Amino acid sequence: MKNILLILVGILSAAGCGQVDDVYYERTPSSLSDGSDYTPISKAYWSQVADSATEALINNFWSSANDYFYMDFQPPELHPGGFQYWPQAHAMDVVIDAYVRTQDAAYLEYYAKWFTGVKQGNQATYGGANYRNQYVDDMAWITLTMLRMYETHPSHPEEYLATAAQIYNDWIITEWTDSPCGGGIRWRTSSYTEGKNACTNCPAAIIACRLSGFYKTLGDNDKAAKYLADAQQLYHWIRSMLYDSRTKILYGGVDVENGAEKRSTTSLSYEVGTAVGAAQELYHLTGESYFLTDAVDMANKATTDGMPMDGATGCLRSEGPGNGDGGLFKGIFIRYFVKLTNDTNVDKDKRKQFYTFMVHNATTLWTAGVHRDGNYADMFGPNWAELIPQSGVVGLQGHVSGCTLLEAMNVLQPVE
Predict the structure, then answer these.
(1) What is the C-alpha separation between 149 and 156, in angstroms, rounded?
(2) What is the mean pLDDT of the chain?
(3) What is the pLDDT of residues 110-161, one digit of tens each?
(4) Is 96:403 a contact under the CB 8 Å cutoff?
(5) DSSP letter at 372?
(6) How far is it, in rounded angstroms, from Cα 256 to Cα 124?
């Protein structure tokens, strides 16, 4: 398979664009800003690409002894980093993506292993009870992954849904306080900070939306209504405290300094991505058009001249080292951005614009940001336009973001 990919990449890089299985693949989508030369991507090509990236994730980071993902990889077989809780969610999300894409039962086997392994790793490292952790946003990521496992598993194990609901009910929404900052969920389950962040409240709103939808499907209208009310309350707080409706920028949080509330001046990709995700889900649950308008406006700002953009490459910028938290941020944005791009309720020209941005990021990563062979083959760092060094440690976070983008290319739909 790798030889096939090498041939394909060589053709595409040399010609500027290429043809795979009679479908044109655009090499320089930045020239398509007006959508006039729109061409669909090749799913066969990107499925092979995703195979390589996701196989590298499992082969280099998965611990078969512990049933969770190592944080670091150093060839040939070293794993110097210990267990961390929240990146486990996003690594497992890539495995879920691979299962959805291929329906290969080998990926499905990781569901139950991860479900147990993460709990045990969390207890051993943090001394928590089950999946409880002092960082509320970390629990939210784990919960979202459990909901994806429930949704995508062919038998929809009730345990995944029940555990996700329990974490949300007992340890996430209970951290909502009416003051300070006019509401919102705290970042930590202690008085360490009074701050309320997008990275906690936006994922919590998505959880509430999904729980509402699942319980409505199961016929429990009372639970569905309760979770929908939570989601609306959370999003309205996000919109009032963190969103600038004039500039369309979603800021990272609000804190209290010397008794005064002070909003963050930064906007990170994962904060925008989860705000987009919450708004889009609320649109589909309520039919209220302003939710979709918000989602499109935030995504448009982030991918044109917003803070997550790197003007030099036209891609999402690096937001930290590949073995740090920031390495995961871009992948989280992509997870929700691709859903918005596929939403046929969004204006067609705007969808083409978003589609073009996705293709440009993925093309840049796969043609400029990855080694083809050797100990670091098919592995990624935090800058999608640069190769990782051929020595030292590769971080799980940076590699997972790249995998998320490449798996998302198999979900991306042509704009008809």
Answers:
(1) 8
(2) 90
(3) 999 999 999 999 998 887 668 999 999 999 999 999 999 999 999 999 999 9
(4) no
(5) S
(6) 33
Residue 54 Cα distances to 49, 163, 167, 173, 403, angstroms: 9, 27, 28, 33, 6
Question: For the chain, which domains are there?
Answer: 1-134+320-416 (no CATH), 176-307 (1.50.10.20)
Q: Which two tokens stand for residue 343?
A: 């939403």
Predicted structure pTM score: 0.92
Q: Which amino acid is at 297?
A: D
Per-residue pLDDT for 279 more than 60?
Answer: yes
Query: What CA–CA distance (Å, rounded) separates 278 from 291?
Result: 9
Give exposure, 171-205, as e/b (b: 16+ Cβ within 10 Å): bbbebbeeebbebbbbbbbeeeebbbbbbbbbbbb
Phi, psi for 40 (deg, rounded to 5): -75, 160
Sign of the alpha-carbon dihedral angle for 354, 315, 14, 3: negative
Section 87-114 average pLDDT: 98
d(CA 61, CA 80): 11
User: How far, in Å, CA of 100 to CA of 107, rounded?
Assistant: 9
Give the torsion through C-alpha atoms of 198, 200, 201, 204, to 10 deg.
140
Side-chain half-sphere exposure of 150, counting CA atoms within 13 A: 21
pLDDT digits (tens, 9 = 90+) for 207-243: 999 999 999 999 999 999 999 999 999 999 999 999 9
Q: What gap in Å lies between CA 76 and CA 74, rounded to an integer?
A: 6
Share of the chain above pLDDT 70, in %: 89
Contact 234, 205 (CB under 8 A): yes
